[in-house]
Specification:
- This protein is of the alpha+beta class and about 550 residues long.
- The protein is about 50% helix and about 20% strand.
- It contains 18 helices and 17 strands.
- The chain has a 6-stranded mixed beta sheet, sandwiched between helices. The protein has a 5-stranded antiparallel beta sheet with strand order 2-3-1-4-5, with helices on both faces. The protein has a 4-stranded parallel beta sheet with strand order 7-6-8-9, with helices on both faces.
- Helix 2 runs parallel beside helix 4 and helix 3 runs antiparallel to helix 4.
- The longest helix has 24 residues.
- The radius of gyration is 25 Å and the shape is globular.
- It starts with 9 loop residues before the first helix and ends with a strand.
Length: about 550
């Protein structure tokens, strides 16, 4: 992370995206709770998170493409990837506007990223976002963006990039506090604008990425107000158009201008962002079919999403099952095992954790009224939470059990009983996962300091509950030491998950080790297939 920088380089852009995703992950539920405009559907925080998640993934993909060499991407490559990722992954009214804000910044920063360019970038962002909205309204994220740009413009020439982005952040905070006095629905509900609050979080992440210091966090909700409790009846989604329609569109500029006019006559909350032949279209309408047909006339619409504000999903489908389990698995072998147990699986490929959209698709694919979600990775906590929240807006009851490893997911799935009540099932599965300690073996990629001492490249590392506890020279001996440490605290069942290239003789040797050293402890062995770790271990 840069400490003080006069330029926003590619690494800083990557850091910004990561910090923004973390910030929105922390604040997602609180932002959802104050979402009363333009529709009080409680999803602004989730939509912003999903949009930034897509932007961050696009930037990571650019860095991954450079891993084979010694160079890093250029700033232009990084900001263009960020903007494109946000465009194709934008969700909802707020996410679509944020995508245009990032696109406006990227167009300027691609040509240079010093303090002066940052001022221009913030101004370009505010202007382009306002132009993308058919009927701009003050007291929204558009106002917050404009005031952030104005505050940045007032910074004296010669000041560095940290001073510019901090001024933008402070300007945005001040503007956010004023939104209840500018938009009546916010004043009556006693909350600030949800989209504006999300933008403040994103700008706070930019301050930290550029200066190395995070700004002071501010509470999202005034203490005297409960989220959305005072939302007046006249602002209920049922009082506006019935459907939200979103799609990506390949079309030329002239066709998009005609589309804007057509959609503006069909509904409200129209936002069309993008350019260079690719656009993201968002509108609220009563006739969803007409909105899609307008897109077909303009070009090629795809990734079409239609949401009914009252009934959540417009698409007819067969009667769903009562309950299902969705599991993230690190290898195809465990995927088959979980599928045999009746779970819907999402494969986490090495170095490619699933995005929220993949988890939401899996929840839909499970086709059940109630879903238990097992992410099986601590780093997926925000991603899984956003997916669960999105699914809940579609009428699906989702319980997220924060499993941190595949073996915890196996333990939870083993006690799953769809015939008992949902709450009882979730409690039992959570207890089983929580009672399972987890470990894995990994190969050290470089010399490094660890909790167990200094490891060298090629050493076998034994990680227990996420921390390096054993450093060894070979897999069998390291695995035995890990098992001994875990079983020293007791246990009744050992679960071993072998990677694709690990010989079956290792499982035989470890089973014998447990059998000879620990009475009344059973061992079960599974083949994990192609997975990152050569061995996963669970003790419950």
């Amino acid at each position: 992370m840069p400490q003080t920088a006069d330029d926003l380089d590619a690494v800083a852009v990557r850091t910004w995206c990561s910090l923004a995703l973390d910030a929105l992950g922390r604040e997602r539920e609180a932002i959802d709770a104050i979402n009363v405009y333009p529709v009080a559907d409680g999803d602004t925080g989730t939509n912003l998170y999903l949009t930034v998640e897509s932007a961050a993934a696009a930037v990571e993909a650019v860095f991954a493409a450079h891993e084979t060499g010694t160079s890093v991407p250029s700033t232009a490559d990084a900001v263009r990837a960020m903007a494109h990722g946000a465009l194709i992954g934008a969700r909802g009214n707020s996410g679509t506007i944020l995508a245009q804000l990032l696109r406006g910044m990227a167009g300027v920063l691609a040509e240079g990223a010093g303090a002066g360019r940052l001022r221009l970038a913030l101004s370009s962002a505010a202007t382009s976002a306002r132009e993308a909205v058919a009927h701009p309204v003050e007291g929204t994220v558009l106002t917050v963006a404009a005031e952030a740009a104005a505050a940045a413009a007032r910074v004296a020439d010669g000041a560095g990039a940290p001073a510019v982005v901090r001024a933008a952040y402070e300007g945005a905070r001040t503007a956010l506090d004023a939104t209840p006095g500018q938009l009546a629905v916010l004043g009556r509900a006693g909350v600030v604008d949800a989209g504006g609050r999300g933008l403040v979080a994103v700008l706070g992440a930019l301050v930290e990425a550029v200066s190395g210091r995070a700004p002071e966090r501010v509470p999202t909700l005034p203490p005297a107000h409960v989220a959305g409790a005072d939302c007046p009846a006249g602002d209920d989604p049922q009082d506006g158009p019935a459907f939200e329609v979103i799609y990506l569109l390949e079309a030329d500029d002239e066709a998009v201008e005609r589309l804007r006019v057509r959609l503006d006559g069909l509904g409200d909350s129209l936002v069309v962002v993008g350019g260079d032949g690719l656009w993201n279209v968002h509108v609220h309408v009563d006739d969803a079919g007409a909105a899609v047909e307008a897109g077909v006339e303009a070009g090629r619409p795809y990734r079409i999403r239609i949401t009914h504000f009252a009934a959540d999903r417009v698409h007819a489908r067969p009667e769903p099952a009562q309950r299902a389990v969705v599991v993230v698995v690190p290898g195809d072998g465990l995927g088959g095992l979980c599928a045999e147990a009746g779970a819907t699986t999402v494969l986490a490929r090495p170095g490619e954790p699933p995005a929220s959209g993949e988890l939401v698709d899996a929840i839909r694919r499970a086709h059940a009224r109630e879903v238990v979600l097992l992410p099986n990775d601590g780093d997926l906590r925000h991603t899984a939470a956003a997916a669960a929240e999105q699914a809940r807006t579609e009428g699906i009851r989702v319980a997220l059990i924060p499993t941190r490893a595949a073996v915890q997911g196996i333990a939870a799935l083993a006690v799953h009983e769809p015939d008992r009540s949902f709450d009882e099932d979730v409690v039992a599965m959570t207890a089983a996962a929580g009672a399972t300690r987890y470990a894995e073996l990994a190969v050290a990629e470089r010399q490094s300091w660890t909790m167990a001492g200094i490891c060298q490249t090629g050493d076998i590392l034994g990680l227990i509950d996420g921390d390096v506890a054993v450093i060894g020279e070979d897999v069998p001996e390291t695995a035995r030491k890990v098992l001994d440490r875990m079983l020293a605290a007791g246990g009744e069942l050992v679960t071993l998950v072998l990677g694709e290239d690990v010989p079956g003789t290792l499982a035989d040797a470890l089973e014998e080790h447990v059998r000879e050293g620990y009475l009344a402890v059973d061992t079960v062995v599974y083949r994990g297939g192609h997975q990152c770790a050569p061995l996963l271990i669970g003790v419950e």
